[in-house]
Each structure stands twice: as structure tokens, then as C-alpha cells.
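Note to self: user wants both folds in one dump. Writing first protein now.
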Amino acid sequence: MEIRPLKRHLACALAAIGLACGTAHAAPLKKVVIYQAFQSVLYVPLYVAMDEGIFAKHGLDVVKVTAGSGPAGVAAVIGDHADFSLQDPMIAVLANLKGAKLTNVAMVVNGAPVWIAVPKTSKLKSVEQLAGKKIATAIPPSTSTYLLERLLKAQKIKTDLDTVQLGSELAPLMAGRAEASALYEPQLDEGVAAGDRILYSFTKHYPGGYAFSTIDMLKSTAKKDPAMVKAFVAALGDAEHLMHTDPSVSVKVAEKEFPSLSKPVVKAAVERMVKENVYPATPAISPASFKNALALQVFVGNIKPGQVTYKDAVDPQFVK
């Protein structure tokens, strides 16, 4: 019995199959557009999913556009210029009260990422001692300022608020014009690097989480392209999980996205936000985190008590 010809034919067949597999084209990536409010160190989970190729692994080609503000990002979704936007979820909630049909599907910034800092030489040891002092904070509307105002009101503390442009809250503290500042990152760790210390951390006073920045979309997208939404949320979830299992990835991506910032400051800021769960381990928007964010809008007076529910504003079906 002649075996060699059979082996030869089999080898040729396998080679042909291999050639066919090698020349077959992979399915093209689906283009997805997301508008972010700002280029922010708070949004590192999105950048990890993009820069580490995680969206691509889920079949998506994600294009990021910086809107310049939260409302502009939401408007892009409403106008069908974007599939998603990333900003304070309450902006989408407020848009819905005016007739829009948006829903929030994934968490990007969990926890209230605001800290009150004072100079290292300051004698201030507690929030109560801020009475009568000048505190630098962002010009409203700003979540940092609203959180500060609510804290001061709850403590029955009267202070002198020095409102400045968002992103410049550290300057009055460094110049000695304010005795404390309410800061976001990376300003916080820029101050710490210069010798400031943290007097109060808002992140530690919201153990249930705080829906600070989320992904929103049109409600109709859930029916029009559920596979795309599922892939997007799954990729974001993979990125957030990676950030908590290997924080060095977060630092690497943040350094790439913010080359003008000091690397030690970037590293300190990112590691702080991983540790304090500002970067969530999962994209799930919990009822507790949404409730905490909603309560601040009620305090400000933008939303009436009972006017909005979790079910109205969040679609949790895509988070597994």
C-alpha cells in the first residue's frame, strides 16, 4: 500500500487551508464616536481602553472628540453627531427634563474626586477650622464648588469663597491669597508635590460611590445597535479591571495622554485615584452612586425631590 502520495495530498490540502486562513480578511472594526467634555486625567479608563487596543479587541474603532464642555458633548449625542458622550451624568438627566431621550450606560469616574488642600505650614487641622477663612474654588457650575458649599452648610460654617476659573484653583493657594483650595486632580498632586497637604477628601465620604462621570447615549441606540453598545461597555469594563489589577498600565497611558505634566505628579494622581476607587473596577452605575450624585443636584435646586429616578436615567442591561 502506497502511503506517501496520500500524505503528500493531505499536506497540500492542509497547506491550502492554511493559505486560505492566512489570506482571509478580518472583519472591519466598527467606527464609534465619543465626545468627552474635556481631556482629563479623570477619564483615564477611556484612554486605557483606546490606547491599549481593548476597544479594537471588541471590534470597535473608537474616535474621541473633545467637546469643551459637558453640555456640548450631550448636544453632540442628541444631534446624532456622536454615539456616546462622557461627562457628568446629571447633564444628561437635565437634558431629559427638557425633552431629550438619553440614558447613562457605564461608569468612568466613581467617587467624588475633590479634595480640600492647605499649605503644609497651615495650622488648620479640620473642616470646622475653615470658618472665616478664604477658600479658592471653581466658578459655578462646578461639582467641586457645590460639594464644598453643601459640606460647609452641613457643618454650619461660614467662609469666604474665592471663585476662579476651573483648573486654576491651586494658584490662589500657592500665591497666599487663599488659606485652602478645593481641587481636582492633577492640581491636588501638583500642590502636594509643592508641599501642600490634604485637609479633607470628599471621596472618603461617599462609600456607596458617586456617579461623577458616565457614558451616555440616546435611548434608541439600545434598540438600534445593542451589539455595539454591549461591546463598548465590555471593553470599558476590561480596561477598568486592568487598571485595578495592574495600576502601572494606568500610569503609562496617563503619561502618554498628558505629556506636558510632570511624570511624578501624573503617577501620584493616577495611583491615588485607583486606590480611592475614583477609577471604578467595573462600569456598573450603582443605584447608590446615582442617588449620591442626584442628591447634589437637588441641593443646588436644579432638580426637585422625586423628579428623577434611577430607572429614568440609567440603563444597566449592558453591564455584565
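First done. Writing the second protein, which came from a different request thread.
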Amino acid sequence: FDFRAIRVELGELVFSLPPSLGRQTYTLETYMPALHHALLPGSLQPMISAYISSAHDGIRSTVANMDGTSVPLLSLIIPPAYHAACRAAFGPGFPAEESYPLFKAFDDSFHLLATNIPRIFLSKPLKAWEKLIDLIEAYIGSLGDDLEEAGHFVKVAIRGREAGWVRRAWPTAFGVEASY
């Protein structure tokens, strides 16, 4: 069981990650280990703190906006958790609200994409993925060279410049990581 090989294969099959990016030395020997390091228990505290703060604020805001109406419990859990995870991994300025419907459309068909069904049958989730990558790319562009508020995943992906990653590769690479 080689998770790295699975990540590379799924990156290409499901997330449209070009093999030239997913299989290059930088990706395998620098990028992936850097993300693994960021997810080690000793390194997680900043992301956990950001996640807790954002999740708390998101749930409180959702409940406050309900104005006494009832909603499915799932809507009180999944969207705030998604928003909190985006802000923790990508930074507080990440447009989580705007990205959620795109991510959901893609994620709902993940199992179909992973089975390699002909892509012609999956135009809706693939278009959603492309729009999500566009959104991530715009977010990265809005950061410019000031990465102070960027989340750890963004900083690691942007270092891909050292390996010749083109601008479109950054959002695709960490879009893949966010989906795991």
C-alpha cells in the first residue's frame, strides 16, 4: 500500500493534475513531504486554532441567521466545517462561501471520477472543478507576494515556483490536497 502512488494516480485521474507536475521530483520529494510535515501532530496547532475559531464563528453565524426556523442538522455541520477547513489551510481571506457549491458539485461525483467513467458523462463536476481552480487561482493572484495571511498549504504550493510550476499548477496542486 503506497499512498504516494495512489495520490499521484488520483491526482491525474480525478483532479486533472498533469503527469508532468504530479510525477516530478519536486512534487514527490519536496511538496508531498512538506504537506505531510504540516499535518503532523506537532505542526497542526496553528491550523487547529484557525479551524476552531472559524468553525465556532461559522456555526454561531448560521444559527443566528436561522431566526428560529428549523434546518437539517447537516447544514449546521458540513458548510461551517468546510469553511473553517478552507480558512485554516488557505488563509482567512479564502473565498470559502463562493467555493463551497463548486467543491460540493465536484465532491458529490468523486466516486464516479475515481472509477474512470468517461468524462463526457461527468461534465457538471468537471466544470465545477475547473471553476474552483479558477477561484483558487484568483485568490492566489490576489495575495501577490505578500503571503503573511496565506495558509500553510498555499505557501507550500507557491514554493512550486522553484520547480517551474506554472501559475495554474499551484491551485490545482493544493485543490487536490484540500480534497483529501
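Dump finished. Worth passing along: The chain has a mean pLDDT of 80.
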